[in-house]
């Protein structure tokens, strides 16, 4: 999907649907309400997206591409950057994508709905958007570990990537628990501090895993 090439009607439907899906979830959102908000004919969803599920898939993809365009995973990286700097940039951009509520404004709530009630559309999102990010992060971790590919090392790389992403997602998915424990909570204003914390914690863990792999 190239956002700049989406025609006006489709974009209106996606934007309207994004707000309604984020508010009500896929199950309770109606095509009629979406078309009313978009100012389009009720048949426009079937014409442009096949059905409500096709529209939802487009909304998820549009939302993810929008945040990636604003906060790419190689944010601030140069050809001479170290793997440590690449990891920090990845974490920084990841936190910005999940904590910034303005790209688009309904992105965070939409993802929360999808996390709470996973739909079939998530599989396409994983394949087209999430998997490439995982491959990029795995390449960074592989640089940090510095070992040849084998079953044991690749398992370690995978577990490291999941741990890194898990730390980031917790500040979004566990927002209510975090605010109960720390009433001030965390927002985009705290991204720099959170980036430093998660990067240092992750680098320390990876270094210890690297030592264990060398021993064995």
Question: What do you see in this structure?
Answer:
The protein has 216 residues and is mainly α. It folds into two domains: 3-64, Homeodomain-like (Arc Repressor Mutant, subunit A), CATH 1.10.10.60; 71-215, Tetracycline Repressor, domain 2 (Orthogonal Bundle), CATH 1.10.357. The chain has helices spanning 8-28, 31-38, 44-49, 52-70, 83-99, 107-116, 121-145, 151-173, 175-181, 191-215. The longest helix is centred in the middle third of the chain and has 25 residues, at 121-145. It is elongated and about 65 Å long.
List descriptors.
216 residues, mainly alpha, Arc Repressor Mutant, subunit A, Tetracycline Repressor, domain 2, 2 domains, 75% helix
Compact description:
This protein is mostly helical and 216 residues long. The chain contains 10 helices and no strands.
Shape label: elongated
Structural class: mainly alpha
Q: What's the helical proportion of residues?
A: over 70%
CATH topology of the largest domain: Tetracycline Repressor, domain 2
Count every beta strand, where a strand is a DSSP E run of 2 or more residues.
0
Strand content: under 5%
Largest sheet: none
Which regions have little confidence, pLDDT < 50, spanning 5+ residues? none
CATH superfamily of the largest domain, called what? Tetracycline Repressor, domain 2
Instruction: Tell me the distance between the termini.
Output: 45 Å
**CATH class placement of the largest domain:** Mainly Alpha
Count of discrete structural domains? 2
């Amino acid at each position: 999907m190239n956002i700049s090439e989406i025609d006006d009607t489709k974009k209106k439907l996606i934007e309207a649907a994004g707000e309604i899906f984020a508010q009500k979830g896929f199950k309770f959102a109606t095509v009629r309400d979406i078309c009313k908000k978009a100012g389009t004919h009720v048949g426009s969803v079937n014409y442009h997206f096949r059905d409500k599920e096709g529209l939802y898939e487009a909304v998820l993809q549009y939302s993810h591409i929008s945040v990636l365009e604003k906060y790419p995973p190689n944010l601030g990286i140069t050809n001479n950057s170290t793997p440590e700097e690449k990891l920090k940039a990845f974490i920084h951009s990841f936190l910005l994508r999940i904590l910034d509520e303005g790209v688009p404004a309904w992105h965070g709530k939409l993802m929360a709905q999808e996390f709470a009630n996973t739909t079939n559309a998530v599989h396409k999102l994983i394949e087209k958007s999430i998997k490439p990010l995982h491959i990029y992060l795995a390449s960074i971790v592989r640089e940090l570990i510095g070992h040849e590919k084998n079953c044991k090392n690749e398992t370690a790389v995978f577990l490291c990537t999941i741990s890194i992403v898990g730390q980031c997602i917790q500040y979004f998915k566990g927002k209510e628990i975090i605010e109960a424990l720390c009433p001030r909570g965390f927002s985009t204003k705290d991204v720099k501090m959170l980036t430093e914390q998660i990067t240092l914690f992750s680098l320390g863990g990876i270094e210890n895993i690297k030592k264990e792999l060398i021993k064995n």
